[in-house]
Write a structure and sequence with these properties.
Length: 319
């Protein structure tokens, strides 16, 4: 079976390797090389690097429609899409004989869009999964080929969930390619109320300590990959952005609002610092990364700062 593979970041690489094992990949379509790092050196993306190692043909248009004739001339049977980062228009969708399938990290129709795992965590979901579906012109609206569920544990963050979903997705894709090669093309309509996972912005990470500790904990878990949850600390040297990498929930106090929101309640070397949140709750901030510095323990972060238990953090309110 002749296939096209569309993908760009590291998470797509194992799926490219699987596609190369299970089919004849006639082209890898990936985004153009981009300037990266402080030196802005132009480098290939992870999928391109993997394709080079596999000796696969590579196409890097700004938009796939720019090379629609070239793609159509490849006479592919199927397109495989995972984290490509571009919308495929009608001319491209119809190029392979059977169309395109997409690997998506949610239980469609829940969390259609570009950031399904972060938004599932932000919203406190207890389950997620992987869906393989047939692409149409809508936003993740095509019929399902297969789907598998996974549990979200209260302590798991986006990195851990993506690690958990990878073997599920690879298993589903392998089975899908084998079924399609046998001439079986399952299609089941998506059922249920759709929800959406829009593109994340840096501003989405700003922590509002007036929210409950659970809501803050979920935000930190969801944004640990990007853009990261953060607060802005005001001190004598100005305003500094502090990314929060890990939090732990504290048992709820029986007294609502025992201290003003933003008050530093406790400091422990291993657990970090406990800060008062809304709804009478509090959250342990365990690991942080101050702007321009390496990640560190939250208690270490307090060293040398004039922040004492019982006093309010000098936080900037909003942006």
């Amino acid at each position: 079976m002749r296939t096209l593979f569309y993908g760009t970041p590291l998470l797509a690489v194992p799926y490219l390797e699987l596609a190369a094992q299970e089919s004849n990949v006639v082209a890898v379509i990936t985004q153009p090389d981009r300037p990266l790092g402080r030196g802005l050196v132009t480098k290939p993306g992870p999928v391109k690097e993997a394709a080079l190692k596999l000796n696969l043909p590579i196409l890097q248009p700004d938009r796939p429609s720019e090379i629609s004739r070239e793609i159509q001339a490849l006479n592919a049977d199927l397109g495989i899409v995972i984290a490509y980062g571009r919308i495929l228009k009608t001319d491209i969708l119809k190029a392979p004989r059977l169309g395109h399938i997409n690997v998506h990290f949610s239980l469609l129709p829940k969390y259609r869009g570009s950031a399904p795992v972060p938004w599932a965590l932000i919203n406190g979901e207890t389950k997620t999964g992987v869906s393989i579906f047939w692409l149409d012109e809508g936003m993740d609206t095509g019929p399902l080929l297969s789907q598998k569920e996974a549990e979200i544990l209260p302590h798991e963050n986006a990195t851990q969930i993506m690690e958990k979903l990878e073997p599920l997705g690879l298993g589903l894709l392998k089975n899908a390619l084998q079924e399609i090669a046998r001439g079986r093309y399952p299609q089941t309509s998506q059922e249920g109320t759709p929800s959406y996972a829009p593109l994340l912005r840096k501003a989405d990470g700003l922590i509002n300590f007036e929210n409950s500790a659970l809501r803050i904990h979920n935000l930190v878990r969801g944004l640990v990959l990007w853009p990261r949850a953060y607060f802005i600390l005001k001190d004598s040297s100005g305003e500094k952005r502090v990314s929060v990498l890990q939090t732990t929930l504290e048992a709820t106090s029986g007294t609502p609002f025992p201290a003003p929101i933003g008050t530093l309640l406790r400091v422990e070397q291993e657990r970090g610092f406990l800060i008062q949140c809304g709804q009478g709750s509090s959250v342990w901030i365990s690991r942080v990364q101050p702007e321009g510095k390496s990640p560190m323990g939250a208690a270490e972060f307090l060293n040398g700062r004039r922040l004492t238990v019982g006093k309010a953090f000098p936080l900037k309110r909003g942006e």
